[in-house]
Write a structure and sequence with these properties.
The structure is a homodimer.
Chain A: H1 6-20, E1 25-26, H2 30-33, E2 51-53, H3 58-71, E3 75-78, E4 97-100, E5 107-111, E6 116-119, H4 125-134, E7 139-140, H5 151-156, H6 168-171, E8 172-178, E9 184-186, E10 220-227, E11 229-230, E12 234-242, H7 248-261, E13 269-272, E14 283-284, E15 287-288, H8 289-295, E16 301-309, H9 311-328, E17 333-340, H10 362-371, E18 375-380, E19 383-384, H11 388-405, E20 411-415, E21 420-422, E22 424-429, H12 433-452, H13 465-470, H14 474-490
Parallel strand pairs in A: 2-4, 3-4
Antiparallel strand pairs in A: 1-2, 5-6, 6-10, 7-11, 8-9, 8-10, 12-16, 12-17, 13-16, 13-20, 14-15, 18-22, 19-21, 20-21
Chain lengths: ~500, ~500
């Protein structure tokens, strides 16, 4: 179906309305607009939803799929739809019907003893945090930069937080999914009808299918187990600041063994801030380096990190880190603020919320206050080697490319033990179509540059997914052909989210 | 093809011989016999290989698959084929040709800086350990109970070791596989032709397929990245011994938070030893409880565990553990022996080899010395909740069932933070067909009992895979139907390992 196929659209609207109720079917209005790419530019007409439907139960999801199969319309799944830097809920295929799961927002179980929650895709980081606080459950969450998104949606997109279990995709355990034909499937131990271990043990018997439903269009995930950490005795969170451009090389050489060894915990993030008077005025309008600096921390390189656990072990971690960093960077400043494990938003400084596991909107609030309400961003995120050289190369490429396209592009890097995931934000005025276009072109150029390094982004804006998928071309696109074979087998005409991450069936409605 | 289809078999033998050389095709003899179920009983004629072929390169694997497709014969993949407790290399489908990968035994890369090795499936734990020692590379391995097996084979079967990264399946990063049609596929970052991150970063763009090739018959894994830990400053390994049957309940209640919190590292193993004069004579021939006790440690419950890292942090972990255990079990004995991180087999006591990351054959040597050269074992391994009640229930069921069938059945439990994987061994005289049969029946009975608890084994003997797979029956076998859809899509007639973990295509040659 395309957006122009009005007959099918009216039929679908009518059927979905009778199925879900008028309040669960949106065709226009303020709420409908929330499901557009919030920073849409000149290409956005290619990624518009025709309708948004919001089922409330698994039965309704299955019924909606039955209707979609009958009418041959595409459903594009979104959970909360808050990943604005990648296009929000905007579908790859124009005119798809957004199947939004915000109303499926039940927390089905929180198990303090075994350390997990069983949740639906409409549960946000804020909501789970509030439930843990309200019920005084001593479990700690890992949270991403903004707390309004779906926990499941973020994890399914391979999203990251920064605490222990900050690799959110790996923190899921056991999924319930609805396949394109309406079949309800439970993975792992959940396939045993009376399993006590669905959210506790990752695998069943035979291959684990959990990862198959992440960054894919193979099913609609309607429930997931989420592992949570015991609340630590203390959380000590802070920053390492370095002032010289080339400090990044010894900094990373010092951090890598500490992460591999487990002294550094969670996923530290390195942010590069452009320095020097000569670059302060680069940018346009409010989007200048000088304004950007007011949002970022003051070092040329700033590492945000946290330690969690018994007070005495946290002290030892701190002292090992200090010795290792100061051995190679004697002038690096290391700040650390120590909070009780149960410290909440009233006790923790806002800049420490993320490391302390408190979901928040601080970053977006600050960016909007500096850059205005039309602040737009496009996130670019190549995975790069965990070396100082790779970091420096990324920073240089980003500065050159962002500068050339007239947008701001600070560099962030999430440190895994054996790789870094760049989390760079191209920042621009979303009310200016030229700047929107410039940001997309800058993203394309950075991806082309990364491809020369043998690297690719770990996720991407919907407008760029096919280009990114083409990077994974080994042996005449063997991986893409495998994805298509699976898609053909379970959704031959692409009812569910066609084009998601470049995955298409061989034929499509 | 069945074992009786002699025409096809002769044709296959001729073709594989001309393809691989006479030395790489076995139809009988001592080496051929290594690929039978080593403890085969009366049912074993149902799981016999017709031939064994041993390619040495990826090209040869692809060529062998071309021949198999042409002649319509089944290839049953085995790496080293040393998982004797689950049937060794014996195929589910009688008369299959074993595609054994022992000769693909190259260590392609060891990267000390990033902490990984890239290996082929014929590389054993012994071989990689020797290479690390020979090249003085400061990386530590996790090893399973016996060191002669394939690292990749063990990980693909969801096997466990006991150190950090002891969940071997999760320690793999990036696979190369040959699909049934001969297509060479690289997963994750490896699908980028010039990737520097294949063995460093778990995912690419789109769903990660690594787990799809574990416990499955969807491809022949020909290379894999394996994450290794930095060699710690010290390794402190030892045992907790408790003497009372019901000690298991407070023991597990004390251990669970320590594991979830990360104070206990790796995968501690609890072994239950039958105690009391009244049970000493239970068993038959050499297979008595009294003899069994000479192999096991002396507590009613024995926890094998290890701490790894900086000496001062290891001391703190030790003191936290002691306090937590003695608070609930004042009479528990805690032994700990501390070795340098690089201590090898000459410096470490043999009973500590496994926890110290030194591959060995100690367990099998001791079992054979006590029970004789015809010692046979069948491993039964339900995944159970991480609670004292579940442990006690398993132990009681195992004693009752093993006793009823006249075999020995000590209980082991590997402790993950949110589940336990039982590693129980049914022990018997493999030269006595009645005992072999009794062991299989005991395994069946234990699995039936576990099914009542909502539990199932994490892997199984080839003779029992279909029964186990049936346990995962949620929604009219939705999971099994999904497996079959994938199998149909990539291997419609079941050339590759049909029946592996209960996965069959809809039609089969």
């Amino acid at each position: 179906m395309t957006g122009n196929d009005l007959g099918a659209l009216y039929a679908a609207r009518e059927r979905f309305t009778s199925l879900l109720g008028a309040g669960a079917v949106l065709a226009d209005g303020v709420i409908f607009d929330e499901f557009r790419d919030p920073f849409e530019g000149p290409e956005a007409q290619s990624h518009r939803a025709a309708l948004v439907i919001q089922p409330e139960t698994v039965d309704q999801v299955q019924a909606a799929l039955a209707v979609a199969n009958e009418l041959k319309v595409h459903l594009w799944t979104s959970s909360m739809g808050r990943n604005y830097g990648y296009g929000g809920s905007a579908p790859v295929k124009n005119g798809a019907i957004v199947l939004n799961l915000r109303r499926m927002n039940r927390i089905l179980e929180i198990n303090a003893q075994q350390g997990y929650a069983l949740i639906e895709p409409g549960v946000s980081f804020h909501q789970l945090y509030q439930a843990l606080r309200d019920e005084k459950i001593p479990l700690m969450m890992s949270v991403p930069d903004l707390g309004w998104g779906s926990i499941i949606g973020n994890a399914l997109e391979h999203g990251y937080g920064y605490n222990i279990l900050g690799d959110h995709s790996s923190a899921l355990c056991g999924l319930e999914t609805v396949l394109a034909d309406g079949t309800l499937l439970r993975t792992g131990q959940g396939a045993i009808p009376n399993s006590p271990l669905w959210s506790c043990h990752r695998r069943g018997f035979g291959p684990s299918l959990d990862d198959l439903f992440k960054q894919s269009n193979f099913g609609v995930v309607t429930k997931a187990g989420l592992w949570l950490m015991p609340q630590p005795e203390v959380k000590a969170v802070g920053t390492i600041l370095c002032q010289q451009e080339h400090d990044i090389v010894p900094l990373i050489e010092a951090m890598r063994p500490l992460l591999q060894e487990g002294i550094l915990q969670g996923i530290p993030m390195i942010v590069g801030t452009p320095v020097g008077d000569d670059v302060a005025n680069i940018g346009q309008g409010r989007f200048t380096v000088a304004n950007l600096r007011t949002v970022l921390r003051p070092g040329r390189w700033n590492v945000r990190f946290g330690f969690y656990g018994r007070a005495d072990m946290v002290s030892q971690r701190q002292s090992i880190l200090q010795k290792a960093i100061h051995a190679v960077l004697p002038n690096a400043e290391i700040e650390l603020r120590t909070y009780a494990g149960d410290a909440g938003p009233d006790e923790v400084e806002p800049r420490d919320y993320i490391s302390a596991g408190i979901p928040n909107q601080v970053l977006l609030d600050r960016l909007r206050s500096v850059f205005g309400e039309t602040f737009g961003h496009m996130d670019v995120s190549p995975v790069i080697p965990f070396t100082g050289e790779a970091a420096l190369r990324l920073d240089q490429a980003m500065r050159e490319i962002a500068g050339r396209h007239g947008v701001l592009g600070p560099v962030g890097m999430l440190c895994n033990p054996r790789s870094m995931v760049a989390a760079c934000m191209l920042m621009f005025d979303a009310s200016d179509p030229d700047q929107v276009k410039a940001a997309r072109n800058a993203a394309r150029d950075l991806y082309a540059q990364a491809r020369d390094w043998g690297c690719a982004p770990y996720r991407s804006h919907v407008a760029l997914v096919d280009e990114v998928a083409e990077t994974f071309s080994f042996n005449d696109d063997a991986l893409g052909r495998m994805y298509s074979k699976i898609k053909n087998a379970i959704d031959p005409v692409g009812i569910l989210s066609p084009g998601n991450h470049g995955i298409w069936p061989d034929r499509s409605i």
